[in-house]
Amino acid sequence: MILIDSAAAQGSSSTRSVVRIGEDSMFYEAPHGVPAYVGIEYIAQTVAAHAGLHALRRGEPVRVGFLLGTREYKCAETWFRLGAHLTIDVSPVLEMTDVSKFRGVITDQFRGKLADCSVTVYLRSGSE
Question: Does some domain include residue 54?
Fold first, then answer.
């Protein structure tokens, strides 16, 4: 399942993705929107885009990744509302060969920062 609409930008140490909340969004619940806890997955998928884009840039295969956990997910809203255009920014806090930790922040065009947390991910090596 792919929840982010696109990877919008990538720098050497950060990646940005965008999500538009519409009635066709996965997990949309009328009339509220998308539950805010789905933001953890938006962040995790942006981390996956970050890892995949960096691998492609280095000429390496894209590896399968797994979300191991999240810490301190804080969200100012209960729902991401219909019509919101979310921006998800992730940057690495610690990168090792197979396990990395990232900080993720979700903002929207009207209310600014909505959510943030850190996520720990595992990237499976090609031989597994």
Answer: yes
Is 1 among the domain residues?
no
Which pLDDT does position 100 carry in this prediction? 94
Cα of 55 vs its chain's centroid, Å: 17
CB of 114 within 8 A of CB of 71?
no
Q: What pLDDT is recorded for position 126?
A: 62
Model confidence at 8, pLDDT cuts 50, 70, 90, reads confident
Q: Is residue 101 part of a domain?
A: yes
Q: Any idea what the CATH number is for the domain that residue 26 is in? A: 3.10.129.10
Q: How far apart are CA 31 and CA 112, in angstroms?
A: 22
State how far the Cα of 109 lies from the Cα of 94, in Å rounded to an integer. Answer: 29
Say how many domains are in the chain.
1
pLDDT at residue 128 tops 70: no
Residue 38 one-letter amino acid = V
